[in-house]
Design a protein that fits this description.
The chain is of the alpha+beta class. The protein is built from one helix and seven strands; from the N terminus they run H-E-E-E-E-E-E-E.
């Protein structure tokens, strides 16, 4: 239920961002450069600066790094559903803090309103790596034999 609420909040935020973009594109001077929108990555990703953020249920291309903020309420145990598959944690070299249980992530992890400001990369048919913007690997995921079940 909490994930459903957060998903609805994410849809609302995306709708507001689109409305702002549409409004500013209609009211601004076409010669002016608009500031980045909320859906554009704010951290340089090298050659993938134009890679849009991927949303839950989205399609991942191999070896493309996507901005993906992760809610830590239930820790890193479940990444989400991508390419029609639920993904579960297999390794957590950065630790597995569960904020819903009162645990805090390491101080150097970049936190935003949606959780850790991380990046995910499909590095093989059965492996997704989740890293911080500086490249530090904090979690590895594999396909789950079970369907995705939201955290409670």
């Amino acid at each position: 239920m909490i994930r459903a609420h957060r998903h609805a909040r994410g849809i609302l935020l995306a709708t507001v961002a689109v409305a702002i973009v549409l409004f500013t594109s209609c009211t601004s001077d076409p010669d002016e450069t608009a500031p980045p929108t909320a859906t554009e990555p704010t951290t340089s990703l090298g050659s993938s600066d134009e890679t849009p953020r991927v949303d839950f249920g989205g399609r991942l291309e191999p070896n493309v790094t996507y901005p993906y903020p992760m809610d830590l309420h239930c820790g890193l145990d479940q990444l989400g559903e991508f390419n029609g598959v639920a993904w579960i944690l297999t390794e957590a070299p950065g630790g597995n803090p569960e904020q819903g249980a009162g645990q805090s992530p390491p101080a150097h992890w970049p936190l935003g309103p949606e959780g850790v400001d991380g990046r995910l990369t499909l590095v093989g048919q059965d492996r997704i790596e989740y890293s911080l913007p500086d490249g530090e690997l904090i979690a590895v995921y594999e396909p789950s034999p079970d369907p995705f079940v939201p955290c409670e």
